[in-house]
Structure prediction request, 423 residues.
Amino acid sequence: MKKRYLVPALIAAGAAAAVAIAWPRDQFIAASSPAAWAGTQDNVARGAYLAKAGDCMACHTARGGQAYAGGRAIDTPFGKLTAPNITPDQANGIGAWSADDFWGALHNGKSRDGRMLYPAFPYPNYTRVSRADSDALYAFLRTVPASARANDAHALRFPYNQQLSLAAWRLLYFKPAAFVETPARGAEWNRGAYLVEGLGHCAACHSSRNTLGAPSDGLAGGLIPVIGWYAPSLTSDAEAGLGSWEVPHIVQLLRTGISPRATVMGPMAEVVQESLQHLAVADVTAMAVYLKSLPDTAARREKFVPGPETEQVIAAGKKLYEAHCVDCHGGDGKGLPPAYPPLAGNRAITMDSSVNAIRSVMNGGFPPGTTGNPKPYGMPPFSHVLDDAEAAALLTYLRSSWGNRAAPVTPGEVNKYRAVPLD
Prediction:
Protein backbone atom coordinates (compact mmCIF):
# COMPACT_ATOMS: atom_id res chain seq x y z
CA MET A 1 0.00 0.00 0.00
CA LYS A 2 1.47 3.37 -0.99
CA LYS A 3 2.05 5.71 1.90
CA ARG A 4 -0.28 8.49 0.77
CA TYR A 5 -2.96 8.90 3.36
CA LEU A 6 -4.77 12.10 2.44
CA VAL A 7 -3.67 13.68 5.72
CA PRO A 8 -4.96 17.19 4.95
CA ALA A 9 -8.37 15.80 3.99
CA LEU A 10 -8.45 13.63 7.09
CA ILE A 11 -7.68 16.55 9.43
CA ALA A 12 -10.21 18.75 7.67
CA ALA A 13 -12.85 16.07 7.94
CA GLY A 14 -11.95 15.61 11.59
CA ALA A 15 -12.44 19.29 12.29
CA ALA A 16 -15.78 19.22 10.52
CA ALA A 17 -16.78 16.21 12.61
CA ALA A 18 -15.84 17.68 15.98
CA VAL A 19 -19.46 18.12 16.97
CA ALA A 20 -20.44 14.71 15.66
CA ILE A 21 -18.17 12.85 18.08
CA ALA A 22 -20.11 14.02 21.10
CA TRP A 23 -22.52 11.11 20.85
CA PRO A 24 -24.00 9.93 24.16
CA ARG A 25 -21.99 6.99 25.46
CA ASP A 26 -25.08 4.84 25.74
CA GLN A 27 -26.33 5.45 22.21
CA PHE A 28 -27.17 2.17 20.47
CA ILE A 29 -26.81 0.34 23.81
CA ALA A 30 -29.94 -1.46 24.97
CA ALA A 31 -29.65 -2.90 28.46
CA SER A 32 -30.10 -6.64 28.61
CA SER A 33 -31.29 -8.91 31.36
CA PRO A 34 -28.60 -10.05 33.84
CA ALA A 35 -29.71 -13.58 33.07
CA ALA A 36 -28.36 -13.15 29.53
CA TRP A 37 -24.78 -12.65 30.71
CA ALA A 38 -24.83 -14.53 34.00
CA GLY A 39 -22.02 -17.06 34.40
CA THR A 40 -24.22 -20.09 33.91
CA GLN A 41 -22.88 -23.23 32.30
CA ASP A 42 -24.97 -22.65 29.17
CA ASN A 43 -24.00 -18.98 28.79
CA VAL A 44 -20.31 -19.66 29.29
CA ALA A 45 -20.28 -22.63 26.90
CA ARG A 46 -22.07 -20.61 24.26
CA GLY A 47 -19.70 -17.68 24.74
CA ALA A 48 -16.64 -19.94 24.44
CA TYR A 49 -18.01 -21.27 21.17
CA LEU A 50 -18.65 -17.76 19.86
CA ALA A 51 -15.12 -16.71 20.85
CA LYS A 52 -13.86 -19.51 18.61
CA ALA A 53 -16.18 -18.38 15.81
CA GLY A 54 -14.80 -14.85 16.09
CA ASP A 55 -11.21 -16.10 16.48
CA CYS A 56 -10.82 -13.67 19.38
CA MET A 57 -7.75 -15.39 20.78
CA ALA A 58 -5.78 -14.86 17.56
CA CYS A 59 -5.35 -11.15 18.22
CA HIS A 60 -5.79 -10.97 21.98
CA THR A 61 -3.11 -13.52 22.85
CA ALA A 62 0.60 -12.89 22.37
CA ARG A 63 2.80 -15.72 21.17
CA GLY A 64 3.47 -17.83 24.24
CA GLY A 65 1.38 -15.52 26.41
CA GLN A 66 -1.66 -16.09 28.58
CA ALA A 67 -4.92 -16.51 26.71
CA TYR A 68 -6.77 -13.23 26.11
CA ALA A 69 -4.16 -11.20 28.06
CA GLY A 70 -3.32 -9.11 24.98
CA GLY A 71 0.10 -8.01 23.83
CA ARG A 72 0.06 -9.25 20.24
CA ALA A 73 1.34 -6.50 17.96
CA ILE A 74 -0.52 -5.76 14.75
CA ASP A 75 1.50 -3.92 12.12
CA THR A 76 -0.48 -1.56 9.90
CA PRO A 77 0.47 1.00 7.25
CA PHE A 78 -0.20 3.66 9.89
CA GLY A 79 1.97 2.24 12.67
CA LYS A 80 1.73 -0.53 15.22
CA LEU A 81 -1.32 -1.44 17.27
CA THR A 82 -1.18 -3.80 20.23
CA ALA A 83 -4.22 -5.86 21.18
CA PRO A 84 -5.44 -5.19 24.73
CA ASN A 85 -5.96 -7.44 27.71
CA ILE A 86 -9.57 -8.69 27.74
CA THR A 87 -9.33 -10.99 30.77
CA PRO A 88 -11.47 -10.07 33.80
CA ASP A 89 -8.63 -8.24 35.57
CA GLN A 90 -10.07 -5.13 37.23
CA ALA A 91 -7.17 -2.78 36.47
CA ASN A 92 -5.85 -3.91 33.09
CA GLY A 93 -8.57 -6.08 31.60
CA ILE A 94 -12.35 -5.80 31.31
CA GLY A 95 -13.14 -6.78 34.88
CA ALA A 96 -14.72 -3.38 35.58
CA TRP A 97 -16.76 -3.46 32.37
CA SER A 98 -20.49 -4.07 32.36
CA ALA A 99 -22.30 -6.12 29.74
CA ASP A 100 -23.46 -2.81 28.25
CA ASP A 101 -19.85 -1.61 28.05
CA PHE A 102 -18.84 -4.78 26.23
CA TRP A 103 -21.78 -4.46 23.82
CA GLY A 104 -20.74 -0.85 23.19
CA ALA A 105 -17.30 -2.00 22.07
CA LEU A 106 -18.62 -4.64 19.68
CA HIS A 107 -21.56 -2.70 18.33
CA ASN A 108 -20.37 0.88 18.39
CA GLY A 109 -16.56 0.63 18.51
CA LYS A 110 -16.21 2.49 21.80
CA SER A 111 -14.40 1.63 24.99
CA ARG A 112 -15.94 1.75 28.46
CA ASP A 113 -14.72 5.34 28.94
CA GLY A 114 -16.19 6.49 25.63
CA ARG A 115 -12.84 6.44 23.82
CA MET A 116 -13.15 5.43 20.18
CA LEU A 117 -11.45 2.16 19.25
CA TYR A 118 -9.30 1.60 16.20
CA PRO A 119 -10.94 -0.55 13.50
CA ALA A 120 -8.11 -3.09 13.59
CA PHE A 121 -10.57 -4.38 16.18
CA PRO A 122 -13.13 -5.30 13.53
CA TYR A 123 -16.16 -3.55 14.99
CA PRO A 124 -17.25 -2.55 11.45
CA ASN A 125 -18.10 -6.27 11.21
CA TYR A 126 -18.89 -6.97 14.86
CA THR A 127 -21.54 -4.26 14.81
CA ARG A 128 -23.80 -6.91 13.24
CA VAL A 129 -23.34 -9.31 16.18
CA SER A 130 -26.56 -9.74 18.13
CA ARG A 131 -26.90 -8.48 21.69
CA ALA A 132 -27.57 -12.04 22.84
CA ASP A 133 -24.27 -13.24 21.38
CA SER A 134 -22.44 -10.24 22.85
CA ASP A 135 -23.79 -11.10 26.29
CA ALA A 136 -22.72 -14.73 25.96
CA LEU A 137 -19.20 -13.66 24.92
CA TYR A 138 -19.09 -11.34 27.92
CA ALA A 139 -20.19 -14.18 30.22
CA PHE A 140 -17.39 -16.39 28.88
CA LEU A 141 -14.64 -13.77 29.12
CA ARG A 142 -15.54 -13.15 32.77
CA THR A 143 -14.59 -16.78 33.46
CA VAL A 144 -11.12 -16.88 31.87
CA PRO A 145 -8.16 -16.54 34.28
CA ALA A 146 -7.50 -12.88 35.03
CA SER A 147 -4.14 -11.46 34.01
CA ALA A 148 -2.58 -8.31 35.44
CA ARG A 149 -0.61 -7.78 32.23
CA ALA A 150 -0.59 -4.04 31.53
CA ASN A 151 -1.69 -2.91 28.09
CA ASP A 152 0.98 -1.61 25.75
CA ALA A 153 0.50 1.78 24.13
CA HIS A 154 -0.13 1.86 20.40
CA ALA A 155 2.67 3.26 18.25
CA LEU A 156 0.80 5.09 15.51
CA ARG A 157 2.15 8.04 13.57
CA PHE A 158 0.55 11.47 13.67
CA PRO A 159 -2.26 12.17 12.89
CA TYR A 160 -3.48 8.58 13.16
CA ASN A 161 -2.79 8.59 16.89
CA GLN A 162 -5.39 11.30 17.42
CA GLN A 163 -8.99 10.62 18.46
CA LEU A 164 -10.11 13.52 16.24
CA SER A 165 -8.68 11.76 13.18
CA LEU A 166 -10.38 8.54 14.23
CA ALA A 167 -13.66 10.44 14.60
CA ALA A 168 -13.29 11.64 11.03
CA TRP A 169 -12.65 8.09 9.84
CA ARG A 170 -15.76 6.87 11.63
CA LEU A 171 -17.84 9.66 10.17
CA LEU A 172 -16.74 8.62 6.68
CA TYR A 173 -16.72 4.85 6.96
CA PHE A 174 -18.60 3.52 9.99
CA LYS A 175 -22.21 3.41 11.05
CA PRO A 176 -23.53 1.04 13.71
CA ALA A 177 -25.76 -1.56 12.13
CA ALA A 178 -27.56 -4.80 12.80
CA PHE A 179 -27.78 -8.02 10.86
CA VAL A 180 -31.06 -8.12 8.97
CA GLU A 181 -32.30 -11.51 7.83
CA THR A 182 -33.51 -12.16 4.30
CA PRO A 183 -36.59 -14.33 4.91
CA ALA A 184 -36.76 -15.62 1.34
CA ARG A 185 -33.32 -17.22 1.75
CA GLY A 186 -34.17 -19.54 4.63
CA ALA A 187 -32.67 -20.13 8.06
CA GLU A 188 -29.46 -21.88 6.93
CA TRP A 189 -28.46 -19.18 4.44
CA ASN A 190 -29.19 -16.45 6.99
CA ARG A 191 -27.14 -18.21 9.66
CA GLY A 192 -24.23 -18.40 7.22
CA ALA A 193 -24.58 -14.75 6.26
CA TYR A 194 -24.63 -13.75 9.94
CA LEU A 195 -21.44 -15.66 10.68
CA VAL A 196 -19.58 -14.49 7.55
CA GLU A 197 -20.61 -10.85 7.74
CA GLY A 198 -20.52 -10.46 11.51
CA LEU A 199 -18.62 -12.55 14.02
CA GLY A 200 -16.47 -14.27 11.38
CA HIS A 201 -15.47 -10.83 10.01
CA CYS A 202 -14.35 -12.37 6.71
CA ALA A 203 -14.41 -8.99 4.98
CA ALA A 204 -11.67 -7.74 7.33
CA CYS A 205 -9.20 -9.64 5.14
CA HIS A 206 -11.10 -10.44 1.93
CA SER A 207 -11.54 -6.78 0.94
CA SER A 208 -9.30 -4.20 -0.63
CA ARG A 209 -8.67 -1.08 1.43
CA ASN A 210 -8.38 2.54 0.44
CA THR A 211 -5.60 4.89 1.50
CA LEU A 212 -7.26 5.43 4.87
CA GLY A 213 -7.55 1.72 5.58
CA ALA A 214 -11.30 1.44 5.02
CA PRO A 215 -12.58 -1.68 3.28
CA SER A 216 -14.00 -0.64 -0.06
CA ASP A 217 -15.65 -3.51 -1.86
CA GLY A 218 -17.20 -6.19 0.32
CA LEU A 219 -15.66 -9.61 -0.21
CA ALA A 220 -13.95 -8.84 -3.51
CA GLY A 221 -10.45 -9.60 -2.26
CA GLY A 222 -7.38 -7.53 -1.51
CA LEU A 223 -3.75 -7.52 -0.43
CA ILE A 224 -3.47 -7.78 3.35
CA PRO A 225 -1.36 -4.77 4.37
CA VAL A 226 2.17 -5.31 5.69
CA ILE A 227 2.14 -9.13 5.85
CA GLY A 228 2.10 -9.51 2.07
CA TRP A 229 -0.54 -12.15 1.40
CA TYR A 230 -3.48 -11.68 -0.95
CA ALA A 231 -6.89 -12.59 0.47
CA PRO A 232 -8.67 -13.71 -2.71
CA SER A 233 -12.07 -12.54 -3.80
CA LEU A 234 -14.99 -14.57 -2.50
CA THR A 235 -17.17 -13.09 -5.24
CA SER A 236 -15.00 -14.12 -8.19
CA ASP A 237 -14.99 -17.67 -9.48
CA ALA A 238 -11.57 -16.89 -10.96
CA GLU A 239 -10.23 -16.46 -7.41
CA ALA A 240 -11.89 -17.94 -4.33
CA GLY A 241 -15.52 -17.75 -5.35
CA LEU A 242 -17.29 -21.00 -4.56
CA GLY A 243 -20.18 -20.93 -6.99
CA SER A 244 -19.04 -24.08 -8.82
CA TRP A 245 -18.06 -26.01 -5.68
CA GLU A 246 -20.02 -28.74 -3.98
CA VAL A 247 -21.03 -27.75 -0.46
CA PRO A 248 -19.34 -30.79 1.18
CA HIS A 249 -16.02 -29.77 -0.40
CA ILE A 250 -16.38 -26.22 0.93
CA VAL A 251 -17.14 -27.58 4.39
CA GLN A 252 -14.14 -29.89 4.20
CA LEU A 253 -11.84 -27.03 3.22
CA LEU A 254 -13.06 -24.73 5.99
CA ARG A 255 -12.96 -27.39 8.72
CA THR A 256 -9.77 -29.28 7.79
CA GLY A 257 -7.78 -26.93 5.52
CA ILE A 258 -7.75 -29.42 2.64
CA SER A 259 -10.19 -30.61 0.00
CA PRO A 260 -10.07 -32.28 -3.42
CA ARG A 261 -10.01 -28.83 -5.04
CA ALA A 262 -7.83 -26.64 -2.83
CA THR A 263 -5.55 -26.38 0.20
CA VAL A 264 -5.28 -23.39 2.53
CA MET A 265 -1.95 -21.88 3.48
CA GLY A 266 -0.71 -18.59 4.88
CA PRO A 267 -2.99 -16.54 7.15
CA MET A 268 -6.04 -18.62 6.24
CA ALA A 269 -4.35 -21.70 7.70
CA GLU A 270 -4.36 -20.03 11.12
CA VAL A 271 -8.04 -19.13 10.75
CA VAL A 272 -8.91 -22.77 10.03
CA GLN A 273 -6.72 -24.11 12.83
CA GLU A 274 -7.75 -21.67 15.55
CA SER A 275 -11.35 -21.00 14.59
CA LEU A 276 -13.20 -22.81 11.83
CA GLN A 277 -12.27 -26.39 12.72
CA HIS A 278 -13.90 -25.90 16.12
CA LEU A 279 -17.29 -24.86 14.74
CA ALA A 280 -20.27 -27.15 14.45
CA VAL A 281 -20.73 -28.82 11.09
CA ALA A 282 -24.13 -27.14 10.81
CA ASP A 283 -22.59 -23.67 11.19
CA VAL A 284 -19.77 -24.31 8.72
CA THR A 285 -22.30 -25.76 6.29
CA ALA A 286 -24.39 -22.61 6.66
CA MET A 287 -21.32 -20.50 5.87
CA ALA A 288 -20.62 -22.70 2.85
CA VAL A 289 -24.20 -22.30 1.59
CA TYR A 290 -23.96 -18.53 1.94
CA LEU A 291 -20.52 -18.26 0.31
CA LYS A 292 -21.59 -20.50 -2.56
CA SER A 293 -24.58 -18.24 -3.19
CA LEU A 294 -22.52 -15.08 -3.69
CA PRO A 295 -22.82 -13.95 -7.32
CA ASP A 296 -19.75 -14.01 -9.53
CA THR A 297 -18.94 -10.33 -9.91
CA ALA A 298 -15.63 -10.66 -11.76
CA ALA A 299 -15.27 -9.31 -15.24
CA ARG A 300 -14.42 -11.87 -17.88
CA ARG A 301 -10.66 -12.12 -18.41
CA GLU A 302 -8.91 -12.81 -21.67
CA LYS A 303 -6.53 -15.77 -21.52
CA PHE A 304 -2.90 -14.79 -21.73
CA VAL A 305 -1.17 -15.81 -24.97
CA PRO A 306 2.62 -16.03 -24.55
CA GLY A 307 4.95 -14.48 -27.10
CA PRO A 308 8.40 -15.74 -28.16
CA GLU A 309 10.24 -14.20 -25.20
CA THR A 310 7.76 -15.64 -22.72
CA GLU A 311 8.00 -19.03 -24.40
CA GLN A 312 11.72 -19.05 -23.59
CA VAL A 313 10.97 -18.24 -19.95
CA ILE A 314 8.35 -21.01 -19.86
CA ALA A 315 10.87 -23.51 -21.27
CA ALA A 316 13.35 -22.57 -18.53
CA GLY A 317 10.58 -22.88 -15.95
CA LYS A 318 9.65 -26.35 -17.20
CA LYS A 319 13.19 -27.59 -16.53
CA LEU A 320 13.03 -26.19 -13.00
CA TYR A 321 9.64 -27.83 -12.46
CA GLU A 322 10.99 -31.20 -13.56
CA ALA A 323 13.95 -30.79 -11.21
CA HIS A 324 12.06 -29.65 -8.10
CA CYS A 325 8.30 -30.20 -8.35
CA VAL A 326 7.31 -33.08 -10.59
CA ASP A 327 7.70 -35.82 -7.96
CA CYS A 328 4.84 -34.36 -5.89
CA HIS A 329 2.67 -32.50 -8.38
CA GLY A 330 3.12 -34.78 -11.37
CA GLY A 331 3.99 -34.20 -14.97
CA ASP A 332 0.34 -33.46 -15.70
CA GLY A 333 0.02 -30.97 -12.84
CA LYS A 334 -2.80 -32.97 -11.26
CA GLY A 335 -0.92 -33.72 -8.04
CA LEU A 336 -2.19 -36.26 -5.54
CA PRO A 337 -4.86 -34.35 -3.60
CA PRO A 338 -5.33 -33.64 -0.83
CA ALA A 339 -1.70 -34.33 0.16
CA TYR A 340 -0.23 -32.73 -2.96
CA PRO A 341 -2.74 -30.25 -4.40
CA PRO A 342 -3.25 -29.98 -8.16
CA LEU A 343 -1.61 -27.12 -10.00
CA ALA A 344 -3.68 -27.54 -13.16
CA GLY A 345 -6.67 -25.23 -12.80
CA ASN A 346 -5.52 -24.14 -9.34
CA ARG A 347 -6.89 -20.64 -8.84
CA ALA A 348 -4.20 -19.77 -6.30
CA ILE A 349 -1.80 -20.17 -9.24
CA THR A 350 -3.86 -18.45 -11.93
CA MET A 351 -5.26 -15.41 -10.11
CA ASP A 352 -4.30 -12.01 -11.49
CA SER A 353 -2.33 -11.48 -8.30
CA SER A 354 0.70 -13.76 -8.18
CA VAL A 355 1.51 -12.89 -4.55
CA ASN A 356 0.32 -16.11 -2.91
CA ALA A 357 1.98 -18.32 -5.49
CA ILE A 358 5.25 -16.45 -4.97
CA ARG A 359 4.97 -16.75 -1.19
CA SER A 360 4.24 -20.48 -1.39
CA VAL A 361 7.20 -21.23 -3.66
CA MET A 362 9.63 -18.95 -1.84
CA ASN A 363 8.62 -19.57 1.79
CA GLY A 364 6.85 -22.91 1.63
CA GLY A 365 4.32 -23.66 4.31
CA PHE A 366 1.82 -26.12 5.71
CA PRO A 367 -1.92 -26.48 5.68
CA PRO A 368 -3.23 -26.26 9.25
CA GLY A 369 -2.99 -29.21 11.56
CA THR A 370 -6.61 -30.05 12.28
CA THR A 371 -8.64 -32.90 13.69
CA GLY A 372 -9.58 -33.81 10.13
CA ASN A 373 -6.00 -33.49 8.90
CA PRO A 374 -3.70 -34.01 11.90
CA LYS A 375 -0.50 -34.62 9.93
CA PRO A 376 -0.54 -32.18 7.02
CA TYR A 377 1.93 -32.49 4.17
CA GLY A 378 4.08 -29.40 3.81
CA MET A 379 5.48 -27.39 0.94
CA PRO A 380 9.26 -26.91 1.30
CA PRO A 381 10.71 -23.42 0.76
CA PHE A 382 12.73 -22.74 -2.38
CA SER A 383 14.00 -19.24 -1.62
CA HIS A 384 17.44 -20.67 -0.86
CA VAL A 385 17.45 -22.69 -4.09
CA LEU A 386 15.99 -20.33 -6.70
CA ASP A 387 17.05 -16.79 -7.50
CA ASP A 388 14.47 -14.21 -8.53
CA ALA A 389 14.71 -14.96 -12.25
CA GLU A 390 14.51 -18.73 -11.74
CA ALA A 391 11.52 -18.45 -9.43
CA ALA A 392 9.80 -16.15 -11.91
CA ALA A 393 10.41 -18.66 -14.71
CA LEU A 394 9.05 -21.54 -12.63
CA LEU A 395 5.95 -19.59 -11.67
CA THR A 396 5.42 -18.45 -15.24
CA TYR A 397 5.52 -22.10 -16.32
CA LEU A 398 2.95 -23.03 -13.65
CA ARG A 399 0.67 -20.19 -14.74
CA SER A 400 0.80 -21.18 -18.42
CA SER A 401 0.65 -25.00 -18.38
CA TRP A 402 -2.05 -27.71 -18.24
CA GLY A 403 -4.71 -25.28 -19.43
CA ASN A 404 -3.63 -22.46 -17.10
CA ARG A 405 -3.47 -19.16 -19.00
CA ALA A 406 -2.31 -16.45 -16.61
CA ALA A 407 0.18 -13.65 -17.16
CA PRO A 408 3.89 -14.25 -16.52
CA VAL A 409 5.61 -13.42 -13.24
CA THR A 410 8.55 -11.02 -13.27
CA PRO A 411 11.76 -11.29 -11.21
CA GLY A 412 10.83 -7.94 -9.65
CA GLU A 413 7.58 -9.38 -8.30
CA VAL A 414 9.44 -12.32 -6.79
CA ASN A 415 11.98 -10.02 -5.17
CA LYS A 416 9.22 -7.88 -3.66
CA TYR A 417 7.55 -10.76 -1.85
CA ARG A 418 10.26 -13.36 -1.22
CA ALA A 419 11.35 -11.80 2.07
CA VAL A 420 8.05 -10.49 3.46
CA PRO A 421 7.64 -11.83 7.02
CA LEU A 422 5.07 -14.54 7.55
CA ASP A 423 3.63 -12.86 10.66
Observations:
- The mean pLDDT is 89.
